[in-house]
């Protein structure tokens, strides 16, 4: 029996080391046939020339339009020659059998996703983003992005083409908006295992583009106005504000993050946002005295391919 085939789309810009690692991660997938579509989105630091050496029978190097990751991913879609597409951001990682596991689960599903371990730039686990239950997925997505980063998602190529790929007017929440459209037309499958490592660092797109969040949310709500109206669903603003605050903290803008939370505390009469603002301003020192911090998530063994285990010598 022929193995499942995937095209792995990796957008990158000015991050040659990350991109090289991501390509190696994709090619190391076990139990599937893989081609890599590496889209250099008009790098300006010499990355394009450096990545040229990766070109080969299984790796296509494409010149992106320079309009951001959504446009870069869309640019690669016409080049896909396999039944399935997998998205991998250049700074994220996969377990070796991530694609095979989702292929085995897929059945008649149009797309699928896994849980993710969220790490810092040194590979230290910070939290786990659990894959949502595929049942009632659309309703969950109307409240918040329960699927998360594109790096957890695989989808049938034909379905992505029919939907037109990512909405390029959205640089930060374009993934959330596409998941909404996928959930509206196709069943999904989910792997509860942590098969993706999502890396948080100061050059992450959600960190760099924090100022665009409110405008993008307004656009998403307007684009799907009929769906929100028909279902009566509302975006979970507590989640949205906390996400924005965490992104600001990632940029070192602690005061701006606290201001965001205080604004929501007044607007939404949210005592939870008020407490979070206090924790941000105190640098968590007071909070940690009152309540010990939660232990970090367990270390997935497969991460040892890329990082030294925390606490090891």
**Spatial separation of the terminal alpha carbons:** 44 Å
Radius of gyration: 20 Å
The whole-number mean of residue pLDDT values reads 87
Any idea what the shape is?
Answer: globular
In percent terms, what proportion of residues is strand?
15-25%
Number of helices: 14
Give helix % range: 40-55%
What's the total count of β strands?
Answer: 9
**Major sheet description:** 9 strands, mixed
Structure classification: alpha/beta
Low-confidence stretches: 285-291
- The helix/strand series, from N terminus to C terminus, equals EHEHEHEEHEEHEHHEHHHHHHH
In brief:
The protein has 313 residues and is α/β, with parallel strands linked by helices. It is built from 14 helices and nine strands. Strands 1, 2, 3, 4, 5, 6, 7, 8 and 9 form a nine-stranded mixed sheet that branches.
Describe this structure in words.
About 40% of the residues lie in helices and about 20% in strands. It contains 14 helices and nine strands. Strands 1, 2, 3, 4, 5, 6, 7, 8 and 9 form a nine-stranded mixed beta sheet that branches. Helix 5 (about 135-145) runs antiparallel to helix 7 and helix 12 packs antiparallel against helix 13 (about 270-280).
């Amino acid at each position: 029996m022929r193995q499942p085939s995937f095209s792995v789309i990796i957008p990158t810009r000015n991050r040659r080391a990350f991109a090289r690692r991501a390509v190696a991660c994709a090619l190391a997938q076990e139990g599937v046939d893989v081609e890599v579509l590496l889209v250099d989105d008009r790098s300006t630091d010499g990355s394009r020339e450096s990545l040229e050496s990766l070109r080969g029978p299984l790796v296509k190097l494409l010149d992106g339009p320079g309009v951001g990751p959504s446009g870069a991913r869309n640019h690669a879609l016409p080049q896909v020659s396999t039944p399935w597409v997998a998205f991998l951001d250049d700074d994220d990682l996969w377990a070796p059998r991530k694609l095979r596991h989702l292929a085995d689960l897929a059945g008649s599903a149009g797309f699928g996703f896994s849980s993710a371990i969220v790490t810092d730039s040194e590979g230290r686990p910070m939290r786990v983003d659990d894959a949502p239950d595929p049942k009632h997925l659309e309703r969950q997505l109307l409240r918040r992005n329960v699927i998360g980063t594109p790096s957890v998602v695989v989808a049938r190529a034909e379905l992505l083409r029919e939907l037109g790929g990512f909405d390029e007017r959205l640089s930060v929440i374009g993934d959330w908006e596409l998941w909404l459209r996928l959930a509206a037309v196709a069943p999904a499958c989910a792997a509860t295992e942590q098969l993706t490592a999502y890396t948080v660092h100061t050059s992450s797109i959600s960190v760099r583009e924090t100022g665009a969040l409110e405008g993008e949310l307004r656009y998403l709500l307007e684009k799907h106005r009929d769906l929100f109206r028909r279902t009566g669903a509302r975006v979970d603003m507590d989640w949205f504000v906390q996400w924005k605050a965490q992104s600001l903290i990632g940029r070192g803008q602690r005061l701006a993050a606290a201001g965001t939370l205080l604004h929501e505390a007044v607007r939404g009469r949210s005592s939870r946002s008020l407490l979070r603002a206090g924790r941000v301003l105190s640098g968590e020192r007071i909070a940690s005295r009152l309540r010990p911090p939660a232990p970090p998530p367990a270390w997935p063994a497969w991460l040892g391919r890329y990082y030294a285990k925390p606490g090891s010598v």
